[in-house]
Write a structure and sequence with these properties.
With about 350 residues, the protein is an alpha+beta fold. About 40% of the residues lie in helices and about 20% in strands. It has two domains: about 90 residues; about 180 residues, Bira Bifunctional Protein, Domain 2 (BirA Bifunctional Protein, domain 2), CATH 3.30.930. The longest helix has about 40 residues. The protein is rod-shaped.
């Protein structure tokens, strides 16, 4: 029995020396020190042996068990340390490498466009004013030559927010264009006036690729003595040159707006086909970006400005369309869906 114990010890220590991993070590422990191990079987069978033989074999078996447990503990410490060192080496920090960048937010592309357009007009001598988004009916329509029966109101799809108690007359609304700020500027300021008016506007209509119930506009007004159509064209041409690039062609055509006379529309050469005609520009080669014209004498007169002495021009553009035209975006809703994959490109 003693020889059997010595052979068991030699085999166990030999195999322990060859162990290289924690899982392998655990299998060794179960085999040599577990409840069903050969060593424990010998210890359980001591009761059947004579007393003298039981003492000698029992003492030797316990010493061997203690030696194996000690060897197991030392081997486990070595393997655990090696495992930690390996993990540390894998995750070792190289202080010479640049740090991990943290994602930073930035301004929304529409906000960027508003700032850029305003900066262009400020460099041309214009000031910037803002106003309330809930507007009186008078400044939104009547002061701009759009009385209640005017057909232009049909295209505004107005969102009304208040009614007068008697007669149900509509008095307050979400402004349908920032031209309402132009009406206020004419009434509360005296010439010379040079202002641009950015802001949100609202139309009661369904959303699609080119329309949303809320969007952004920038209107502008200039009033002084001897202002002519040449001043209007020169100002807007310079804006288009700075925003879209010096190579882009610009076209003016007659159009009608109630608050200007005469009225014009301004279009730029299509960025896709360069004037040859494509799906984006409806095969015309041109894309309209704004409406403008000479300030209507009646609009000036309502604001207390003598149209016999002063003249002026006004213009208005949809800001959301500008980055669409610049970057070839075909759906305005992309600006408002909060998709960071889209917004992070600007």
């Amino acid at each position: 029995m003693l020889e059997r114990l010595e052979g068991l010890k030699l085999n166990a220590l030999k195999e322990l020396k060859a162990v290289t991993g924690i899982k392998e070590l655990d299998l060794w422990r179960v085999h040599y020190l577990g409840k069903k191990s050969e060593l424990n079987s010998i210890l359980r069978g001591l009761a059947a042996l004579p007393v003298e033989e039981r003492k000698a074999i029992g003492a030797r078996a316990n010493r061997i068990k203690a030696d194996l447990e000690g060897g197991f503990g030392q081997k486990e410490s070595v393997l655990r340390e090696a495992q930690l060192m390996g993990a540390a080496e894998e995750r070792r920090l190289d202080i010479s490498l640049p740090g991990r960048p943290y994602p930073l937010g930035h301004l929304h592309p529409i906000t960027q466009t508003l700032a850029e357009v305003c900066d262009i007009f400020v460099s041309l001598g214009f000031g910037v004013v803002e106003g309330t988004e809930v507007e009186w009916n008078y400044y939104n329509f009547e002061a701009l030559n759009i009385p209640e029966e005017h057909p232009a109101r049909d295209s505004m799809s107005t969102s009304w927010v208040d009614f007068e108690a008697e007669g149900g007359e509509r008095t307050m609304l979400l402004r349908t264009h920032t031209t309402s700020l132009t009406a206020r500027a004419i009434e509360f300021r005296r010439p010379p006036i040079r202002l641009v008016e950015p802001g949100k506007v609202y139309r009661y209509e369904a959303s699609d690729a080119t329309h949303t119930p809320m969007f952004h506009q920038i209107d502008g007004i200039a009033v002084d003595e001897n202002i002519t159509m040449a001043d209007l064209k020169g100002t807007l041409y310079e804006f288009a040159r700075r925003f879209f690039g010096e190579e882009r062609k610009v076209r003016f055509r007659c159009d009608y707006f109630p608050f200007v006379e005469p009225g014009v529309e301004m279009a730029i050469e299509c960025s896709v086909c360069r004037g040859a005609g494509c799906r984006l520009c409806s095969n015309t080669g041109w894309i309209e970006i704004l409406g403008a014209g000479m300030a209507h004498p009646q609009v000036l007169e309502r604001g207390g400005i003598d149209p016999e002495i002063y003249s002026g021009f006004a213009f208005g553009m949809g800001v959301d369309r500008l980055p669409m035209l610049r970057h070839g975006i075909d759906d305005i809703r992309l600006f408002y869906n909060n998709d960071l994959r889209f917004l992070s490109q600007f």
